[in-house]
Structures are given as structure tokens and as C-alpha cells.
Specification:
Elements (H helix, E strand, L loop, with lengths): L1 H14 L5 E8 L3 E8 L15 E14 L2 E13 L5 E3 L13 H11 L4 H8 L3 H15 L10 E10 L3 E8 L4 E7 L3 H11 L1 H5 L3 E4 L3 H10 L3 E4 L1 H22 L2 H7 L3 H5 L8 H12 L2 H18 L3 H18 L5 H9 L1 H10 L4 H17 L5 H11 L4
Parallel strand pairs: 2-4, 6-9, 9-10
Antiparallel strand pairs: 1-2, 3-4, 4-5, 6-7, 7-8
Length: 401
């Protein structure tokens, strides 16, 4: 019987272990449990680790712990204010609770696990805590696990922006392409914004960056050229998007000039016209597309031009693609379709980054994937007023911790 009791006591002590304190009493009510602790030994200085610091004052303290069964659990104890010979004056170090926190570290870890998977209000409801307390726990947990930029040495980066509020409020997102994670977030999307990233990274590590993939955004381009010798690669999807916009303008123009029967035939067919032909799997869709294109020569020509440049970016031979791109410029000129003129001008103005795409075959598709995750975070929280917290949640969901 004594051996069983000893075993139970050992298990109990392991489950309710509070370094520096002994459990002296347990009290429970219908919905709560109180664990009463008594100080053992001398207080420890959080600055130098000394355990011989004189006590100035003692304060009663009560904090939430992990639930016991269906009851909320609280830990009651006295903590000490100390004056250490190292110069520190303040609250002693405690293993199981942070200074001024209302929850034990065990409970904070459990709450943080919930907030990584659900909105604050849901996590708060599960644990019976105020949502502001849960938010503070979540912020602190992410900050403790953040990857320090100074420990990284990225060589291939992607740069993109995302709107966090209406009215042209943007964040600049920098990701490590091979590692597939966000490594830095800055406010706004100016040259000075990206300059901050390179300043934090340091000039030596900035020079180690060999490739930077981005959209054709001049402020970012200026910063990359100023701070690195990297090849700037323009995302092919950005170019294809501009081409699709040109095709859509042709479609709208043809639609506006068509008779009633043709309009009826073309209605709700935008998806087919902008989709890659090789990606259409239904025979019905292919037949419908062919019928539309056969009866509309300008739209047919625009569609062919769209398919041509998409095929160019799909190829892997950099030398051949340069020749094909020049031929595509000529085909656009010969077609007389003015909607494509701005696209040709854009590509020619940024040709160095387009040719670097053929060299490196990199895209910002990873950034777009992260953008989708970020938008999910925004929707789950109905927008973020605390921009710093929003940035932390991006790091949490996109590999920055």
C-alpha cells in the first residue's frame, strides 16, 4: 500500500512541478481548483543567475494553469522583489511563469498552439480567457520563436507586396526562395522599404544574393540594383497577366461590335478565351472555343498571340527563346492589334529581367501562394488593426518561425 502511495505521489509531483516551490495545499470549488505553493530556497536573479539576492518585498500572486478535468486551475504563491549585487532590481526569476503574466508557461504554450490554428476569439472561448490576453500570449510566443535575419544567408530571394488595408496600404514581403519561407516584412512598398531589408541583412550578405525575383515595380528594382549585384528576374506570370488583359480588351471590343446572336454565343465564355488551350480537358469546351475563334478574326489573332508567348515562357532553351520573343514582337506588329502595344513596350523596357527569367526559370509563384495564406489570415481576423501583430501572424503561417 505504501509503495502504491509513493508511486502516486511521484506521479503527482511530476504533473504539478513548480521549481522553487512546494505544494502545500489544494482547494477546489464546483468549477475551479487552487494549487497553493510555498517558497523553497532563495530567489534567483534573472540577470546573472545568482541565488543569494536579498529580498526587498514579497507579493501574493495568482495565475491560471492548465485545466484539471473540466475545472479551471489556478496557482497561488508569493513572489519576491530582489536587489541583486549585479545591479538588477526587480522580480525574481521563476521557471514556470513569466513576469507579470496571468498564465503559467504551460498554459501559454497550449493557448499558442490553438492560436496557430484558429482565430483569437475561438481560442479565447476554449480556454475561458479574455481575447486580449490570448493575443498577448500569441504575440509573445511568435516573437520568442522568430528566426533572426542576422542568422540567415539568403542567395535567392523573391520580393512581392500585399495590401493589408484598402486605400493602397501595402506590406513588402521578402522570401527565401529555396527555403520557401518569408524572412522579412516591411511597411509600404517604396525603395526605402526594401533598403531597410538590405540594411538589416548587411552589405556582405546582400552581395551574396545572386537572384531576385519580382514584378516590374521600379522602387524595388532601384533598391536591388543599389544594394546587390543580383540578377533581377521578372515573374512570367506578371507578363502573362498583362497579355491576358490585352486579350480580354479585344474580347470586350468584339463583343460590343457583334450582333445579338454572336453576343449570346460569346456570353460567359471569358474563361475559355483566357485559358490555355492545352489545359482544356473537356471536348465540349474545346469545340465551343473553336466556334468562337472561327467567327471572330481579331479575337482569333489575339488568342494565337497569347498562346505563342505562353509557349515561349514554357520552353527551357534560353537562346531559342530570345529569338522567338523577337519574332513575337514582329507578329504583334504585323497583327495590327493595338491592345498588345503596351505589353510589347513593357517587355522591351524590362527586357533584361525577362531574359533573366529564361536564364534562371524562376517565378514568384511561391509568393502568390503565401499571399493566399495571408489573405486567409486577414479574413479570419476580419482585418488587422494591429499591423505588427499581422506581420507576426504572417511569419507564423509562412515559415518565418
Amino acid at each position: 500500500m505504501n509503495s502504491k502511495r509513493s508511486k502516486y505521489e511521484t506521479v503527482f509531483k511530476n504533473l504539478f512541478f513548480f521549481p522553487g516551490y512546494n505544494i502545500t495545499d489544494l482547494q477546489d470549488t464546483e468549477s475551479q481548483v487552487f494549487i497553493i505553493l510555498e517558497k523553497v530556497g532563495s530567489p534567483k536573479c534573472p540577470k546573472c543567475g545568482s541565488v543569494n539576492s536579498p529580498i526587498e518585498e514579497s507579493y501574493p500572486r495568482i495565475v491560471r494553469d492548465l485545466n484539471l478535468r473540466n475545472k479551471q486551475s489556478y496557482v497561488m504563491f508569493e513572489e519576491n522583489k530582489i536587489r541583486c549585487s549585479c545591479g538588477y532590481r526587480g522580480i525574481e526569476y521563476l521557471d514556470f511563469v513569466r513576469p507579470y503574466s496571468r498564465c503559467t508557461k504551460e498554459l501559454e504554450d497550449a493557448v499558442a498552439m490553438c492560436t496557430s490554428r484558429m482565430p483569437l476569439t475561438d481560442a479565447a472561448a476554449i480556454w475561458g480567457l479574455d481575447w486580449k490576453t490570448v493575443k498577448d500570449i500569441d504575440k509573445r510566443s511568435i516573437q520568442d520563436r522568430m528566426i533572426d535575419l542576422k542568422t540567415l544567408n539568403p542567395t535567392m530571394i523573391g520580393v512581392d507586396e500585399i495590401a493589408y488595408q484598402k486605400g493602397h496600404h501595402y506590406l513588402t514581403i521578402v522570401r527565401d526562395i529555396p527555403a520557401r519561407r518569408v524572412i522579412w516584412i516591411g511597411l509600404k512598398r517604396k525603395t526605402a522599404t526594401l533598403d531597410e531589408f538590405f540594411t538589416e541583412l548587411g552589405p556582405e550578405k546582400s552581395r551574396n544574393i545572386t537572384v531576385c525575383c519580382m514584378d516590374m515595380w521600379d522602387p524595388y528594382i532601384a533598391s536591388v540594383k543599389k544594394n546587390t549585384t543580383a540578377d533581377i528576374v521578372f515573374d512570367k506570370f506578371h507578363i502573362i497577366k498583362k497579355v491576358n488583359e490585352a486579350v480580354d480588351k479585344v474580347r470586350k471590343k468584339v463583343f460590343a461590335q457583334s450582333d445579338k446572336s454572336t453576343r449570346k454565343e460569346m456570353k460567359h465564355k471569358r474563361f475559355l478565351i483566357l485559358h490555355r488551350r492545352k489545359n482544356l480537358t473537356e471536348d465540349e469546351d474545346i469545340e465551343c472555343l473553336d466556334q468562337i475563334l472561327e467567327s471572330n478574326k481579331p479575337l482569333y489573332t489575339a488568342y494565337v498571340l497569347k498562346e505563342e508567348i505562353a509557349d515561349i515562357f514554357d520552353d527551357v532553351n534560353a537562346d531559342r527563346e530570345t529569338i522567338r520573343l523577337e519574332q513575337w514582337f514582329k507578329n504583334v506588329s504585323d497583327s495590327g492589334i493595338e491592345e498588345f502595344t503596351p505589353v510589347v513596350s513593357m517587355i522591351k523596357n524590362y527586357i533584361y529581367g525577362v531574359l533573366n527569367y529564361f536564364k534562371h526559370k524562376l517565378t514568384n509563384a511561391g509568393s502568390e501562394g503565401f499571399n493566399n495564406k495571408i489573405n486567409v489570415i486577414k479574413r479570419a481576423a476580419f482585418g488587422f488593426r494591429d499591423i505588427e501583430y499581422f506581420k507576426l501572424k504572417i511569419f507564423q503561417r509562412c515559415g518565418g518561425i
